[in-house]
Amino acid sequence: MKKLIWPVMALFALYACSNKNKETKLPIYGQRQPITKIVDGKQVTDTVYATIPPFSFVDQNRETITDKNLDGKIYVADFFFTSCPSICPTMQRNMLTVFKAYEGKNNFKLVSFTIDPRHDTIPVLKTYAEKLGAKANQWYFLLGKKEEVYQLAEKNYLVSVSQDNRAPGGYVHQGWLVLVDKKGRVRGAYDGTDKKQVQQLITDVQVLMDEANAKA
Length: 216
Prior knowledge:
Layout: H1 5-20, E1 32-39, E2 42-49, E3 56-58, E4 64-66, E5 74-80, H2 88-101, E6 108-114, H3 122-132, E7 139-142, H4 146-156, E8 161-163, E9 171-173, E10 176-180, E11 186-191, H5 195-215
Parallel strand pairs: 5-6, 6-7
Antiparallel strand pairs: 1-2, 3-4, 5-10, 8-9, 10-11
Helix pairs in contact: 2-5
């Protein structure tokens, strides 16, 4: 769990700086690579940012959901398990708050990846989602192979997850709600147990929507 603390701390440090400068544009996180090319006879350098890679999982309605379902969408992702006795209930209630703020918006989704595929079968995820009040066409609860989900969490969403029989519920994971833009780039991470940060997340979703509308 400790190995991913530093990038998250850096993320919040950068975000704090952007607020001080009163910038409305959110930073882009993850690895980046400069690409040099010739345009109209002049050398131009562009920056290519890391994006969430292709994936394919199954949701609570047994529908196959891939990264293509999220192309052109702003979305919030988290990692949880239904039998979690610690932070997950609070996280998911706060995810519900985000859902309600943008319910019915076709360009906005929520994605919850289970880190306990043995217990969290499709029927379990469906029951959990229905009790929470989540709508399947806007909020996906995804089940996939454990190693694929864990790699995606740590390498791409920068969220630490692990199985630990000593921990409550048998798993340890960070409670970040990760904001991803329409191009699949990570634009922010927020403590899913902190109402103030969740409200900031709701505000920042609108920032991305405004950003996308301005470019359109």
